[in-house]
Amino acid sequence: MNMRGIGMTSARTRQRMVDRLRDQGIVDEIVLAAMYEVPRHLFVDEALASRAYDDVSLPINYEQTISQPYIVARMIELLRDTERPVRRVLEIGTGSGYQAAVLAHVFPEVYSTERIEPLYERSGKILHKLEINNVTVSYADGSAGLPEVAPFDGIIMAAAAPAMSAALREQLSVGGRMVLPVGRQEQWLYLVEREAQGFRESRLEPVKFVPLLMGKV
Ligand code: SAH
Fold first, then answer.
1. Does the annotation mark 143 as catalytic?
2. Using the 8-state DSSP alphabet, how is residue 210 labeled?
3. Given 65, 85, 88, 181, which residue has the most CB atoms within 10 angstroms?
C-alpha cells in the first residue's frame, strides 16, 4: 500500500473535514487533532476512498458501516469531557478499526472487540500497518464488556443495544464514563457516568447505529 501519496493529497481533505467538525460543534482540540491524523480512506474499500472524508457513514461489508466522522468525534469528546484522566478505554464494535485508531491517538490504552471474524482480522492488519500499537483488538462478543480487563475509564459502543445494559456499566471505574447508542428503530445517544454511589444517565441526541448482535460469527 502506498500511503505516502495518498497521505499528501488527503491532508487537505482531512483539514476540511476538521473545519466542518468545528462548524458542527466539536470543540475539543485533542479530538480534532486525532481526527486530522487518522487517514479514514484507508479504512474503507478503495472504491469508496473518494468519499471517506464526507460526513457520512460508509459500508464496510457484512452489513456493517464505519460511523460518520461527526459521531466518532462527538462520542470521543464526551468520553474526554471530565477533569480526571481517562487512561483505559473499551470500544465495542471494532468494525473497520477507524474509531479505534482515533481513540488510540487520544487515550493511552485502548481495547476493542469485534464479533465478525473477517472484520476483526482486517482491522488488526490496518492498525498494525499504521503502527498503532496501543490498541488490543479481540475477536469476541463484547455485549458483556471485557471483564478480564475491566475496569475502564471509558466505554464506547459502536452498535446499539435495545436497552441500557447494567453489566457493562459495572465495568466502569468510579468517575468513568460510557457513551452509547440505545434503542431499536428510534435510538438515542446516552452518557452514563459512574459516581461514588450509583450512576448518572443523560439522554443526549437522536442517532442511527447498526444493532448490537450476540455471539461470534
Ligand atoms: N467503530 C466501527 C464501527 C463499526 S459498526 C468503525 O469505526 O468502523 C459496528 C460494529 O459493531 C460492527 O462491526 C459489528 O459487527 C460490531 N458488533 C455488533 N455487535 C457486537 C458485539 N456484541 N460484540 C462486538 N462487536 C459487535
1. no
2. P
3. 181
Q: pTM of the prediction?
A: 0.96
As given in the structure block, the three cell numbers for residue 127 are 492498525
Distance from residue 22's CA to the centre of ligand 1 (Å): 26
Q: Which residue has the CA at smallest separation from atom 13 of ligand 1?
A: 95
| Distance from C-alpha of 45 to C-alpha of 39, rounded to nearest angstrom | 13
Please determine, for residue 2, whether its predicted confidence score (pLDDT) is greater than 70. Answer: no
CA 141 to ligand 1 center in whole angstroms: 9
C-beta separation of 179 from 125 below 8 A? no
Q: Is 171 in the pocket of ligand 1 (CB under 6 A)?
A: no
What are φ and ψ of residue 134, in 5° steps? -105, 25
Class of 57-207 per CATH? Answer: alpha beta
Closest CA to ligand 1's atom 19? 212
**What is the C-alpha separation between 211 and 204, in angstroms, rounded?**
19
**Is the shortest distance between the CB of 64 and ligand 1 below 6 Å?**
yes
- Dig out the grid coordinates for 8 from the structure: 499528501
- Residue 117, all three cell numbers: 471474524
Structural domain boundaries in the chain: 57-207
Residue 207 CA from chain centroid, whole number: 14
Q: What's the grid cell of residue 123?
A: 482491522
- Percent of the chain scored above 90 by pLDDT? 90
Summarize pLDDT for 86-101 with one digit per residue, the tens: 999 999 999 999 999 9
Atom 10 of ligand 1, nearest CA residue? 93
Pocket lining: 52 vs ligand 1, CB cutoff 6 Å = no
